[in-house]
Amino acid sequence: MELLTLDFAKPVANVEAFSTTRGEVDRRNAYSGVNLCDYVGDDALRVLDARLTLAMQLGIDLDDLVMPRQTHSCRVVVIDEQFRSLDIDKQEQALEGVDALVTSLKGVVIGVNTADCVPIVLVDGQAGVIAVAHAGWRGTVGRIADSVVKEMCRQGARAERIQAAMGPSICQDCFEVGDEVVDAFRKAGFLLDEIVMRNAATGKAHIDLRTANRDVLIAAGVPADNIVTSRHCSRCESDHFFSARRLGINSGRTFTAILQR
Predict the structure, then answer these.
(1) Taking all residues of the chain, what is their mean pLDDT, rounded to a whole number?
(2) Where are the beta strands (DSSP E) in the chain?
């Protein structure tokens, strides 16, 4: 399985962050390639096989691979020893409707699944706290990245030490939205001049989700120099990363994760 390494602005010892790539693609099949998401209509055995392959590649047990069932919420859950002591059914219940995870445990991979939304991995290497978030436009409007930084700080991190890196997501040129989405960002207090442009030919609005999330992180206290944005567009590069805009909702998802050894 080929993984795209996500580099932080400054090296962090014993921490790995990555996004999966699709690998071999059959363009007739929107699930073809590597998909770890089990609630988007893919064959369950294919998903399990992908998870087992990744776990073996990382040298972890399958139980050490933790991902939520996302709903474009702003809910953040801490993965700690208490969570790990729960049986599998209760763990799944705890992860229902969750879009961000925080942990200080070692050897546990926390990750989110995306198909155009912005995946963000975060770390305070000194505190030993890592996190991951799924920020679609709703999560961005709700400032999920701010909620994650706050939870990391409750676990011992400090905002000025946190580093963040974004995985592949849809670029501004590809992310056309209706005016109701622009209004949602306006009402939430975002500076539209920084994140919205109009297509001269169509008059349609396009939003830069990466810059919007970068602004949220900076407002939360993360230094601008500690934030790395991705140059990979999921829609432009749909042979490498899943894109709901390109492939449809019934397609696979790119898994973005972080692990502390």
Answers:
(1) 97
(2) 3-5, 15-20, 65-66, 76-79, 100-103, 109-114, 118-124, 129-135, 163-166, 176-177, 196-198, 205-207, 227-228, 254-260
CB atoms under 10 Å from CB of 23, counted, come to 13
Q: Which of 175, 177, 105, 100 is nearest to 139 (CA)?
A: 100
Q: Are 252 and 116 in contact (CB under 8 A)?
A: no
Tally of CA atoms within 13 A in the half-sphere of 5 that contains its CB: 7
Q: What is the pLDDT of residues 133-188, one digit of tens each?
A: 999 999 999 999 999 999 999 999 999 999 999 999 999 999 999 999 999 999 99
The CATH-assigned architecture of domain 3-170+227-260 is 4-Layer Sandwich (3.60)
What's the pLDDT tens digit per position in 96-127? 999 999 999 999 999 999 999 999 999 999 99
List the structure tokens of 205: 């609005």
DSSP 62: G
pTM: 0.96
% residues pLDDT > 90 (the chain): 100
Spatial CA neighbour of 241 closest among 254, 250, 256: 254
Over range 10-33, report the average pLDDT: 96
**Cα gap 147→183, rounded to integer Å:** 22
CB atoms within 10 A of CB 82: 9
Q: In this structure, is the dihedral angle defined by the CA atoms of residues 150, 36, 116 and 42, taken in order, positive or negative?
A: negative
